[in-house]
């Protein structure tokens, strides 16, 4: 029987949807660049090219080899996050980046993928959970989350917690352990609130009291979204983003900038495209040849879902603004490369799905 070349058996629909999102984000960033003189669009294209190269490379690497080095990746994650705390560059009131002068690297974005690899491996190796396993799980979660909160970056920490909870729910841990975990969260949340920076507390206040002065950013976001109308003002033509009324339009509030430029039609198209990518990850989870692949794909779907929900919800004033970027769309080299690397693992899982013809 003639073997099918692996190149023709990868999921080209994932690549197509990914390219649409990358193109969408880069196009919008070129429009923002007209105002501030920075080559945001070109930078995004370079990062996308690097990420796509890694994605294609990872596609043809057996994902089980990634699974085998999960603990080493986790150790590397802890080292990177520790370096941020020790030598990180402070910007926007947070110490989240390592500055190499020619580029800034945000380890917490890359660590999302490493963290997911270990969590998927740990859960896939255990059918029945003992108390010892549960303590290990808490340890896996708490180390990177605590270090990210210390930066401080509450938004990114929330992404880790969301992935952790969804994978735990899917893995069906005992109900009694959930009660312990929820009790621990109930105790920890008030303590965590006291440790928040003033600007982080203002974001929560803004959400609870939309008429407060600290809700200025959200109000500007709503104005931008509303001014886009049905078809938008055109890329680079929006008054809110071009006149700098809309803060951090290239990242935190990029959805508002997109809505202003492309209108309701463009916004809905963007949401549908992200949802399509999420569904493709879930489909790959169903086709996965083992539990690890299944959990990893579910984790990637959770990552994209949660970040889309929180970013867009914050732009619409439905949720507090957390600084979580819109995946594959918001500006950020480390984030783009990390998401594409994760999608490369998803492609590797798809390539080696059940009843694969060329193996």
From TrEMBL:
Pfam families: FTSW_RODA_SPOVE
Main subcellular location: membrane
Protein name per the record: Rod shape-determining protein RodA
PANTHER family, per database record: CELL CYCLE PROTEIN, PEPTIDOGLYCAN GLYCOSYLTRANSFERASE MRDB
Alphabetic keyword roster: Cell shape, Membrane, Transmembrane, Transmembrane helix
Membrane topology recorded in Swiss-Prot or TrEMBL: Multi-pass membrane protein
Transmembrane annotation, as ranges: 12-33, 45-63, 69-88, 129-148, 154-170, 177-193, 253-280, 292-310, 330-351
InterPro entries noted in UniProt: FtsW/RodA, RodA/MrdB
GO biological process: cell division; regulation of cell shape
Any one GO molecular-function label of the UniProt entry: lipid-linked peptidoglycan transporter activity
Signal peptide: none
GO cellular component: cell division site; plasma membrane
Keyword Iron-sulfur on entry: no
Lineage top rank: taxon: Bacteria
Subcellular location: Membrane
């Amino acid at each position: 029987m003639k073997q099918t070349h692996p190149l023709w058996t990868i999921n080209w629909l994932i690549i197509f949807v990914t390219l649409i999102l990358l193109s969408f984000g880069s196009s919008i960033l070129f429009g923002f660049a007209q105002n501030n003189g920075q080559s945001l669009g070109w930078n995004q294209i370079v990062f996308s090219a690097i990420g796509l190269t890694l994605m294609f490379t990872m596609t043809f690497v057996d994902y089980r080899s990634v699974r085998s080095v999960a603990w080493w990746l986790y150790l590397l994650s802890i080292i990177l996050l520790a370096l941020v705390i020790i030598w990180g560059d402070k910007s926007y009131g947070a110490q989240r980046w390592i500055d190499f002068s020619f580029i800034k690297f945000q380890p917490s974005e890359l660590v999302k993928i490493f963290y997911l690899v270990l969590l998927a491996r740990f859960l896939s190796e255990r059918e029945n959970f003992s108390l010892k396993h549960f303590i290990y799980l808490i340890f896996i979660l708490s180390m990177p989350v605590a270090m990210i909160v210390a930066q401080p970056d509450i938004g990114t920490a929330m992404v880790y917690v969301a992935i952790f909870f969804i994978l735990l729910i899917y893995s069906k841990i005992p109900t009694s352990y959930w009660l312990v975990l929820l009790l621990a969260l109930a105790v920890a949340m008030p303590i965590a609130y006291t440790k928040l920076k003033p600007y982080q507390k203002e974001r929560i206040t803004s959400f609870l009291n939309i008429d407060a002065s600290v809700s200025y950013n959200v109000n500007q976001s709503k104005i931008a979204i509303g001014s886009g109308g049905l078809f938008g003002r055109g890329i680079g033509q929006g008054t809110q983003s071009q006149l700098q009324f809309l803060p951090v339009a290239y990242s935190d509030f990029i959805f508002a900038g997109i809505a202003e430029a492309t209108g309701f039609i463009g916004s809905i198209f963007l949401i549908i495209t992200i949802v399509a990518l999420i569904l493709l990850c879930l489909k790959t989870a169903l086709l996965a040849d083992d539990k690890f692949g299944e959990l990893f794909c579910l984790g990637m779907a959770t990552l994209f879902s949660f970040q889309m929900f929180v970013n867009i919800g914050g732009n619409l004033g439905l949720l507090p603004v957390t600084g979580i970027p819109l995946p594959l769309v918001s500006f950020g080299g480390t984030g783009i490369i990390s998401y594409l690397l994760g999608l490369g693992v998803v492609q590797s899982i798809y390539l080696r799905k059940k009843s694969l013809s060329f193996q």
